[in-house]
Sequence to fold (496 residues):
Amino acid sequence: MSEARIFSAGCSELADLVRSFDWARTPLGPIADWPQSLVFAVSTLLQSPVPIVLLWGEDGIMIYNDAYSGFAGGRHPELLGSKVREGWPEVADFNDNVMRVGLAGGTLSYKDQQLTLHRYGRPEPVWMNLDYSPVFGEDGRPAGVIAIVVESTERVLAERRLRASEELFRTLAQGIPQLVWRAAIDGACIWSSPQWHAYTGQTDATSLGWGWLAAVHPDDEAVAAAAWRDAPVSGHLSFEHRLRNAAEDRFCWFQTRAAPVRDAQGRIVEWLGTSTDIDDLRQLQERQQVMVAELQHRTRNLLGVVRSIAKQTMAQTGPGETFRQRFNDRLSALSRVQGLLSRSDQEPITLRSLIETELAALDAPAMPARIRLHGPVVRLRKATVQTFALALHELATNALKYGALTTAQGRLSVTWRTYRADDGGGRLLVEWVEEGLVRGPELADAAPRGGYGRELIEHALPYALKATTSYELGATALHCSINIPLPEGEAAGNPA
Fold:
């Protein structure tokens, strides 16, 4: 058979190379002498678009097609006409087995077989689907082996990257505190993380589809449905709802958000989302709103107190320096009690600390031998402290300016006790006693022991604290008593 008839010129690159190759230098000899079985096998593989290589004879002389030349890479065209064990020396053992099995009439098949090849002068891992079959000669015995070689490296590596990415996603999804899930475009659950199962008590099976709605508070199902209706249009999903905490058998607030996963055409194919526990945040916001309302209420009350102080002081002193001094003193007393109130959560306000704070502000502790404080530990309510502190400030100020602390023989005694009244309620009795008063000539022009302080004791305390008070000023002594209800929780302890 003419070689021109077998491998016509221009049929393919490899057909031209095979026709022009000097086969006389190989064990195959000139093409004109090739047996019909070899010519037929070569003609067939040259026309195939699938990578095929023929390994002829005991040496496995290589004849391949254009598709295989692409697989051979930098080894082409030297591989043509070479012995397969020498053409691919790095996998000579593998090919030795191929030849042994094939020439014995056997077949071999490999799926994603990994071999290390040197196609471009360096080792590289290559994955292939390999199918080997014997080719029979004119005598009916195997004369060669034909191999279909389909490289799967790109697919194998892509699958590995995908598995690694999925593993990374699962690691991330299972390592974060949020409940992670995937949903179809209509909100039907495709996958939910172990956190979801642990929190809601659902299983993977019961959470799939619309099963996840069973964990949502019934009052929030409409919110969830509306969010999912809007999501395809807006391109995002975000809503707040309550989820059942299976372990605690109660519903807690969650914020659910999701981002769409789109295909190459930009169409949404599924949603990837998280549900974040915001129950503590919601409770904090509610407490904050209560605190803001309480702060506004206290601010209004405080402004009312300041306005009252200014009005009473002005009525007592008229405008001028005396007003400025007394108004500032009273604002300072108000500021001190606000400081105690601000720390009251960490440091409860006791009656003793309130009295000592006022006396310390007037440098009265420098006269310890003339001042006596005695009584049990009594913790005061916040609502009691402000008005009570202003009254104590007025008493202390008057004692220092006009009373017992103006003379060396003067004495101040502040005692208090708690007791159970006839109606069964607790009460606190404070007695402020100044002795050794002397109204000398230097005090002849002093202000009378009345005014704002007495107004506070005799009118403001009974009104604000339901107190019973008395204020008796004699020639040498002052006796003031303040008796107020002591609600449960205002602790009384040992004398301090």
The radius of gyration is 50 Å. DSSP finds 15 helices and 17 strands in the chain.
